Amino acid sequence: MVVNVTKICCIGAGYVGGPTCAVIALKCPQIQVTIVDLNKARIDAWNSPDFQLPIYEPGLEDVVRKARGRNLFFSTDVDKAIQEADLIFVSVNTPTKKAGVGAGFAADLNYVELATRQIARVANSSKIVVEKSTVPCRTAESMRTILEANSKPNVRFDILSNPEFLAEGTAINDLFAPDRVLIGSLQSAEGKAACAALTNVYANWVPKERILNVGLWSSELSKLAANAMLAQRISSINALSAICEATGANIDEVANAVGYDSRVGPKFLKASVGFGGSCFQKDILNLVYLSESLHLPEVAAYWRQVVDMNEYQKRRFSQTVVDTLFNTITGKRIAVLGFAFKADTGDTRESAAITLIKNFHSERALINVYDPKVEHAQIWQDLTEVVPGSTAESLKKTITISPSALEACKNVEAVIIATEWSEFKTIDWQKVYDGMNKPAFVFDGRLLVDAEKLRKIGFKVTTIGRGERL
Ligand code: UDX
Ligand code: UDX
Ligand code: ADP
Questions:
Q1: Does 470 have pLDDT greater than 70?
Q2: Structural domain includes residue 1
Q3: If you take atom 19 of ligand 3, which residue's CA is the nearest one?
Q4: What are the boundaries of the signal sequence (predicted)?
C-alpha cells in the first residue's frame, strides 16, 4: 500500500493533465512526474527545445521551463511510466458519446476504460489510481472493478476521485491558488490512507483547509454540479439579457445590482453570445443523462434547459445581426473577431463563434474570421464539422481567415465580436470605421467595447443585453 508518493504518472497530456501535473512537478521537486500520451506529436511538442508547447496557456511555458528535465518528463512510453509510479492520474479525454446508447448525452468512457485496463495489465506493484478526467458518477466503481478483476497477486489498487476545477486561460493561476482541491475516496481505512497520500502531495503548496476530503460519489457529482451551476448562471444572465434588449434595461447594470447580494456574488455574471468550452455543455448533458437513467425526468428537464437557453442565445444573436442588416446578409461581407471559446486560450471546443459562422454561412454571407491564437487548420476543421458536406476548399470560397483584426474588418458591412480578446478593445476603431462600408455596424457579443465611443466615431452599435440600439 502506497503511503508516501515519490513517483507520479499522468496518463493524458491534454488541457487538464499537462498543466496540472506540470504544476505538481514545479511545486514538489522531490516527486518525479512523468506525463504520458499515445499521441507522439503532442509529446514531441511538450518536449520541444524551443518550448512550442501543444497548448497555449498564460504562465505554462514558465512552469515547464523550470521543471522539465528536473523532475518533469514527457513520454510516449506509457507502460514504463505506469510501472514506475506510486500514483497514477487518469487524465484522458471523455467526450460526449457520438453513437450507441446515450449518444449526444452520455460521456464516452472508452478512453478511461482502455487506460484503466492498461494499468491493470502492466502494473506489478500497488498503485493509487486517481480519476482526474470529468466522468459520470460511479465511474470510479467501474475502474475499481476492472482493476481488481485484472490485477496480479499482491498488487493493490486504491481509487481516488480528484476532479480538476481549473479554467482555461487562467489554468496556472487556478492551479497555484485553487479555491479548493477535492479528493474523494472510499471511507475505508485504505481509502482514507490513499486520500492522505494525495493530500500530502497538494499540501506542498495548497493550504490544508482548502483540501476537501469527501466520499467518492460526492466528489464525482460535485464536479458535474459545479460546472452545471456555473453554466446555469450564464444561461440565467443570458435569459435576462433578452429581457433587457426588449425593454431598454442594461444587463451590466442588472448583473451588477444582483451580484452585490452576497448570496449571489459578483463573479460569472457576464452576458455573452453563449458559453462554450469543452466542459459546460458536456457535463450538463452528462447530468441530464444521469438524471434520466435514475428515472428523474423533472431533474433532467431542469438541467437540459440550461443548454437549450445557450442554443437560443446563439440563435438570437445571429438573428439580430440579420435583422439589423436590413433582413438579409446574403452576399454581404462581415467580420467575425474571435474564434476561441473565450479569451486567452487557443481552444475552440464548443465555441459560440463556430455556431455564429455556421449561421452566417447558411445565410450565404461572406465572412472574414480573425483570432489571435487559434490555428488556421483548427478553424477549418471546426467549420467543416458543422457545415454538412463541406471541405476546407469549398468553405474558402466564402470564408477567409484574416491575419489581423484590422485586415478582417476591411470593406465589411458589419463587425461581430465573438470572443472577448482584449486587443479588440484597443484596436484603432477609427481606422476600422474608415475601412468599412457604410452604415458601419458593430455587434458586441461580449460587452467588450465602449459603445458610446464607437457611436461617436459613426458606428451603429448593437450590444448584447442593452436596450438602446444603434
Ligand atoms: C470551466 C469551469 O470554469 C472550470 O472550473 C472547469 O474546470 C472547466 O470548465 P472553462 O470552460 O475553461 O472552465 O472556462 P470558463 O471561464 O468557465 O468559461 C466557459 C464559457 O463561459 C466561456 O465560453 C466563457 O466565455 C463563458 N462565460 C464565462 C460567459 O459567457 N460569461 C461569464 O460570466 C463567464
Ligand atoms: C427573499 C429574499 O431573500 C429577499 O432578499 C427578498 O427581499 C424577499 O424574498 P424571504 O422570502 O423573506 O426573502 O426569505 P429567504 O431567506 O430568501 O428564504 C426564502 C425561502 O427559501 C424560504 O422558504 C427558505 O427556507 C428557502 N431557502 C433559502 C432554502 O430552501 N434554501 C436556502 O439555501 C435558502
Ligand atoms: P482534456 O481536456 O480532458 O485534458 P484532451 O483531449 O486535451 O482532454 O487530452 C486527453 C489526452 O489523453 C489526449 O492527448 C489523448 O491522446 C490522451 N489519451 C487518451 N487515451 C490514452 C491512453 N490510453 N494512454 C495515453 N494517452 C491517452
A1: no
A2: no
A3: 92
A4: none
